[in-house]
């Protein structure tokens, strides 16, 4: 936040200085200044920009969809291959350098995408955030590696991170520096160009223009008009040299979100005001919203239902049932996710049916304190050889045939007895107290289970592995061998245990009541969070599980997890991108696991708005107890649902 305000303040000052009479007039274009290159329309890409990376095919599509909006243009990309790391720059490919300011990743992150871009006629700029790393070696390393790709048109420097590592302010580029960098670029290919990027004109070299493209990435602008004015000044300052623009920042979302087709409308206005524009790049931070990944052809259509489901989790209720259902009706709550204890009550079920509230029976799967108290040998076992227990969270080993059969039979029996509208599967995963996993936790710090003898032996048999001596009888020894040598196979085994249990439960429950709607409580981790922990630790493969159920319900408890409201939408959208089921986020109503730090009504309102955004299928409040205690939050529910009804 502070960074943004600093940046905006600087920017406003600069704008005032730069603004003169007629500043917004289209830049003059003299004879012989037409760039040989057509307009490139596409995107900015970085490994850290989008919530997740749908893969090279997606980026090719985005370039093509963007270019499709501007006749005569070709797809383009500002592709970031070097990001600021520490004092220097990390290049996203393997390599060697004597300079400690230049580092490399173990794997190549760019070649597959560049191959696709070559075939699709892209113009690609390879860009770095240099920090204090010297430019000439960076240029040489990057172009030596990727210069054979015909889509590459040159090299780019984010001047905001030039000799600047704390804040994106940078150091102004001198004429000699610009000449030297361009020479380094052209020594690899005389047709290449060099781009320099900043939002302040005075950070660009004072007079050198030949061979350069000037990219403006200004943001935090109050309106489209303000953006076009500022970009026109930029374009005019460098005309007839080519300029480019990065658009679509989240800080500008309040106004661009209201446009029918933001990339097309913003782009058209920029091209009118800045005729020397040669590049329009939608930024990756908001790209998944504006260019949603296309669903694979085999995916069933799972758009949100005509009416969103508004549900509440409720575990017990001692008071008057009429008052309870009247309160729900006043708030627009039309589904109750109830514990077995409550759903078993005949009066509760009768009232729900009478009031048209759909009843979802919550069934805990591998969380079973009663079973564990009766038979502690059922405990799942961690890699340290300990029972899977942290505070109240304790888990049963997911591979015990007897426990699984009992659980399936009990669930089917509950469905037979209660005849709920839906079944909501909870604790359908391996042991992890995800509510308490810090935002920056390392994968290695998360518990891996279950290394009981039965799991270890079954895993080895299934994977066709011979267990080393001592693995049976020593979970620690088994875990260290498995995690070091066979972690990928182990993850598949874990995922299969959960997926097969879902299949068994769903089949048994639907055999009793075929129209049963089934919800699965999803750990709110996206595929790349914590190094893939959603599969590797929790054993939840959301895409696979989504083929078995009607709703995936991520427990997007943002306050507890210290995430901003926007994170809720990100999780929903990420799950929805590959889900065959509808995605129904659950949000928290009151503080949990952050004693003394209340969840305000304002934050709750923002969480709720994000939870309801497309492609969400509705929302489930966790829990009614909390909502019942806070009239101001009930008012929020009423107001937000009402504004939504009007908005649609
Ligand atoms: Zn086990």
Write structural notes for this entry.
By secondary structure, this protein is an alpha/beta fold. The chain folds into 2 domains: 35-287, TIM Barrel (Alpha-Beta Barrel); 309-380 and 389-436 and 490-647, Alpha-Beta Barrel (TIM Barrel), CATH 3.20.20.80. The chain is 39% helix and 16% strand. The protein contains 23 helices and 21 strands. The strands form 3 sheets. Strands 19-18-17-16-13-12-11-21-20 form a 9-stranded parallel beta sheet. Strands 1-2-5-6-7-8-9-10 form an 8-stranded parallel barrel, surrounded by 6 helices. Helix 2 (56-67) packs parallel to helix 3 (111-119). The longest helix has 26 residues, at 487-512. The radius of gyration is 28 Å and the shape is globular. The two termini are 32 Å apart. Mean pLDDT is 91; it is low at 1-35 and 296-304. The protein binds zinc ion. Zinc ion binds next to helix 15.
Average of the residue pLDDT scores: 91
Helix content: 25-40%
Structural class: alpha/beta
Number of domains: 2
Bulk shape: globular
CATH topology assignment of the largest domain: TIM Barrel
The fraction of residues in strands falls at 15-25%
- Separation of the first and last Cα atoms: 32 Å
Briefly say what this structure is.
This protein is of the alpha/beta class and 648 residues long. The chain contains 23 helices and 21 strands.
């Amino acid at each position: 936040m502070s960074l943004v305000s600093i940046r905006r303040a600087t920017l406003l000052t600069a704008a005032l200085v730069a603004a003169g009479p007629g500043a917004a007039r289209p830049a003059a274009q003299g004879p012989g200044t037409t760039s040989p290159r057509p307009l490139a329309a596409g995107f900015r890409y970085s490994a850290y920009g989008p919530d997740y990376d749908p893969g090279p095919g997606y980026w090719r599509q985005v370039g093509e969809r963007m270019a499709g909006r501007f006749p005569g243009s070709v797809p383009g990309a500002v592709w970031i291959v070097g990001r600021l790391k520490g004092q220097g720059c990390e290049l996203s490919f393997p390599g060697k350098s004597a300079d400690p300011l230049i580092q490399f990743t173990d794997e190549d992150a760019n070649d597959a995408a560049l191959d696709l871009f070559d075939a699709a006629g892209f113009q690609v700029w390879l860009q770095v955030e240099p920090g204090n790393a010297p430019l000439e070696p960076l240029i040489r390393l990057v172009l030596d590696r990727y210069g054979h790709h015909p889509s590459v048109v040159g090299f780019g420097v984010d001047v905001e991170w030039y000799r600047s590592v704390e804040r994106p302010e940078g150091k102004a580029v001198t004429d000699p520096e610009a000449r030297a960098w361009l020479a380094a670029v052209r020594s690899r290919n005389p047709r290449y160009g060099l781009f320099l990027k900043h939002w302040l004109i005075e950070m660009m070299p004072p007079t050198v223009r030949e061979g350069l493209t000037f990219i403006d990435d200004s943001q935090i602008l109050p309106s489209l008009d303000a953006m076009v004015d500022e970009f026109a000044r930029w374009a005019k300052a460098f005309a007839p040299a080519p300029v480019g623009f990065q658009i679509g920042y989240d800080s500008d979302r309040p106004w661009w979100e209201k446009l029918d087709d933001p990339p097309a409308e913003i782009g058209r206005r920029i091209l009118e005001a800045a005729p020397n524009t040669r590049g329009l790049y939608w930024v990756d931070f908001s790209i998944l919203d504006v260019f949603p990944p296309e669903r694979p052809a085999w995916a069933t259509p799972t758009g949100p239902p005509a009416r969103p489901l508004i549900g509440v989790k409720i575990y017990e209720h001692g008071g008057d049932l009429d008052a309870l259902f009247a309160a729900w009706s006043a708030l627009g709550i039309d589904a109750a996710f109830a514990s077995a204890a409550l759903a078993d009550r005949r009066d509760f079920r009768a009232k729900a049916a009478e009031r048209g509230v759909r009843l979802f029976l919550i069934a805990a799967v591998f969380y079973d304190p009663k079973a564990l108290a009766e038979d502690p040998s059922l405990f799942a076992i961690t890699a340290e050889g300990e029972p899977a227990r942290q505070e109240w969270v304790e888990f049963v080993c997911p591979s015990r045939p007897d426990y699984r059969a009992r659980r399936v039979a009990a669930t089917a029996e509950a469905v037979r007895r209660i005849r709920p509208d839906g079944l909501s599967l909870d604790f359908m995963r391996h042991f992890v107290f995800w509510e308490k996993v810090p935002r920056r936790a390392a994968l290695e710090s998360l518990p891996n289970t279950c290394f009981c003898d039965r799991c270890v032996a079954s895993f080895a048999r299934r994977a066709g592995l011979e267990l080393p001596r001592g693995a049976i009888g020593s979970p620690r020894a088994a875990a260290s061998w498995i995690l070091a040598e066979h972690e990928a196979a182990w993850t598949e085994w874990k995922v299969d245990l959960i997926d097969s249990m879902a299949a068994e439960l769903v089949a048994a429950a639907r055999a009793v009541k075929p129209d049963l709607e089934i919800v699965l409580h999803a750990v709110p981790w996206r595929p790349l969070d914590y190094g893939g922990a959603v599969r590797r630790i929790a054993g939840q493969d959301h895409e696979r599980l989504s083929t078995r159920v009607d709703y995936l319900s991520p427990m997007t408890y943002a306050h507890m997890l210290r995430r901003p409201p926007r994170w809720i939408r990100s999780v929903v959208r990420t799950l929805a991108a590959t889900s065959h089921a509808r995605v129904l986020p659950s949000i928290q109503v009151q503080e949990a696991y952050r004693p003394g730090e209340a969840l305000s009504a304002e934050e709750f309102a923002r969480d709720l708005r994000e939870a309801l955004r497309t492609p969400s299928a509705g929302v489930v409040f966790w829990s009614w107890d909390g909502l019942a205690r806070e009239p101001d939050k009930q008012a929020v529910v009423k107001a937000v649902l009402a504004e939504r009804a009007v908005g649609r």
